[in-house]
Fold this protein.
Amino acid sequence: RSDKRLSYEQAYAMLKTDDLSKIRAVKPPKNYETAYAGKSLSDMSDADLLRLRGAVNKLWSIAAVLRKKRMRKGALEIDVPEFKIYCDAEGYADRIEKIVSDESHQLVEEFMLAANEAVARELFANKIPYISRVHDDPDEEKLADLREELLLFGIGCGDLRQRREAIKALAAISAHPQSSLLKTKFLRSLKRAMYRASPDGHYGLNKKYYSHFTSPIRRYADLTTHRNLAYYMRMMHFKYTSKMPEALIRQSALEKTAQHITFTEQNSAEAERESRKIKLVEFFSRAVGKDESFEGIITSITGHGFFVELTQSMAFGFVHVHSLVDDIYRMNDTATELRGRRTNQVFKLGDKVMLKVESVDVYKRQIDFALARDSSAQGRNRPRRR
């Protein structure tokens, strides 16, 4: 009974403008990139489009309140940038676009989180077993390591085991020039979320009861929750009907299922990472030998060079010291910089550099970069005298 399947861009336009012509002008996804979206906005009457726009805006007004309350209760806002690789009709990597977590994304997220928590609470209160999405508290050692890493970037923080200190650190990270890199480091210091048949809490969301009742990508955990919720609802109304409810999925069975789907989720995540690597290598192989340059951030230093992450695609690559032909570079004792022996030119952890694609190894799925010498960003790494 859906009136319209909107893209995030179309919903965002409805939230930001009253001009119906501008809303209609937002291009929908191509047919091979998405499922059928229904009637085009350009084919809708003004009255229907205004009604649709009003509904979207009302939803956001509620979602905005939910979001503020959730943040006040101590949820961690780790908004790590995401990039989507679009393929052409033949399946080849065609373009890379940054996914901005704007109000249209937040609208969907808040109602999704609210539904997940409401269902989990209801099932727990009525002793109906269900699979929880669990995010355990982080290890003390990893938080201590993160604290030391943040100091290298000029961010001092207290005991990150305290939630208020973690929230303060995230606020400082968000204001930092290398926020994307640091948010990724913060995220990697946390434990991996998993499925369990017990409500052991979600650290990141700061929720005790949380299930996957609904999610952007349909998961088997959702289905088990739907089945037991359906059992509970039929039991509630059994005295009014002669139809027996479907069998309840027992706790012991859900425990085995939770272990299995946690394992398969890790496999699918690894497959996703590998497929992304393949498409990134495919995309950047077209730039080998060309003058096209890309902005990157130095993420780690070794004696052989430094690893970089591109800011516009989050692609990883390596710059070998052999490509730095103007000097002989040595790594310092803390592995935070490479310094030229003659020029004192420095490449530090977190520095932005402009790069060009030097070579691509399709089989190893590796991208090697070299500095784009004529770029303006390279001026930030001019020789520094002691």
Notes: Residues 375-386 have pLDDT under 50 and may be disordered.
